[in-house]
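just leaving the lab so this will be short. what follows is a protein written twice so to speak, once as letters and once as structure tokens for the fold. can you read through it and tell me how you think this chain folds. thanks a lot i owe you, the record is right below.

___
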Amino acid sequence: MSPRPRSSDRVLVTGGGGFLGRAIVERLIARGDEVRSFSRGDYSELRESGVDVVRGDLSDAEAVGSVCDGMDVVFHVAAKAGIWGPYEDYHQANVVGTENILAACRACGVGRLVYTSSPSVVFHGRDMEGTDESAPYSETYHTHYPKTKAIAERAVLAANSQRLATVALRPHLIWGPRDNHLVPRILQRARSLRRIGAEEHKVDSVYIDNAADAHLLACDRLSPQSSIAGKAYFITNGEPRNLWDLVNGILAAADLPPVTRRVPKRVALCAATLIEAAYNLFRVRSEPRLTRFLVHELSTSHWFDISAARRDFGYKPGVSIDEGLQRLRAWLQSGSSPAITDSKKG
């Protein structure tokens, strides 16, 4: 990534201690920007690298207003992810939190907002092959995360103006070293995973470095007059692969056996429906091992056309899936991830 021919920015990254947020923060620091992180947790390693670490909750409008004061740019990365839990929890974090960010940006004169969205906002439970940004939002959602992210994305794009330029990025299945979500889930459930349905399906994913680079590229191109203002973009590696080839590649990086056993999709859907009903009946807050949303995700193709991101802000994935898997293996074998130890116990 070439350096920008201008002075450094004062940048706020919400969720700066998270997987994607930290990768963005590190790039901003490396190129000389003044960075503030806003998260619920405390991250001493960020503070030691010169980041202004502020703890707080996105649903606290006053706190959000305070951390946005004096900023030139906001990367709104923080969100409540997952496939289970009360709607209100997702609404507060993803909708109210984003509304607070938008209000604070306007009040504080922030000029640019880069919002981290998700391709799931357009996922309708059927195959999506080569889908581009013309795809409409889904009319129904099987879990609260994509529903609330869609509401938030609409608000961000609608807020685009001459005073506040906004753009939404939709990275799909981010993975790599330091992943605290996708990779640990796959490793921890290695022995219970099943291929769903008889057909093979292709999916897109994005290596962490590529996802972070896309955010900075979009930020640097963003302005009220730019072609990307008020738009959403899919971000992937541009390498759709068989879903289970990718999963088994991640398992192989941890020296775990591949997933070979299958279960019919109808059986998986019936099981997921019963499990969800039981969890709802007994008000279980922990995440079920199987849900209808997960069944649909594991039994459909979902890969996307990233030509718009390539054209409009020069996005070019720099790390291939194969190279990413090699880097992931080196990280896992270094003993840096507790997930690899847990996965080999059961």
Notes: The longest helix spans residues 87-108. The two ends are 43 Å apart (CA to CA). The CA atoms of residues 65 and 107 lie 8 Å apart. The chain has a mean pLDDT of 94.
